[in-house]
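Per-record layout

source: Parasedimentitalea marina
name: VOC family protein
length: 137
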Amino acid sequence: MNLKLHHINLATENVSRLNEFYRDVLGLSDEVEGLPVLEKKQGYAGDVSFVSDGDIQMHLAQKDMMAGFNSGHIVNPVSRGHIAYRTDDLDGFIAHLDDRGIRYSDWGNQAVAGWRQIFFYDPDGNVIEVHQVDENI
């Protein structure tokens, strides 16, 4: 089971302002490879902008305090944002969480086409995403 930092999601009330800041002040590019296709009819329809340093993506997402409720999940990844890791074995990682008694929300491909995603909390309440690219979804 391999984990690699994939993106950082920041939740904001003003996506365009945050996008401009990260492009202009930090020089991040809005030409990002491998962008997700958002499923906007399944609980979250907010605006999202993408920037990258060439290695790590940043997903600048419109804050939505109701996305968890609207999608039927306990963990809301766009209330405060989250950090995301990509794995090559999501089922193995889920078993790893189960062995440790860590509860998670299994979003499947509900938010992003072609990605199986789970979200869970660290001990301080920060949201962590682990996803696997699945072309069969």
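summary: Residues 5 and 85 are 4 Å apart (CA to CA). Residues 3-133 form a domain with the 2,3-Dihydroxybiphenyl 1,2-Dioxygenase; domain 1 fold (CATH 3.10.180.10).
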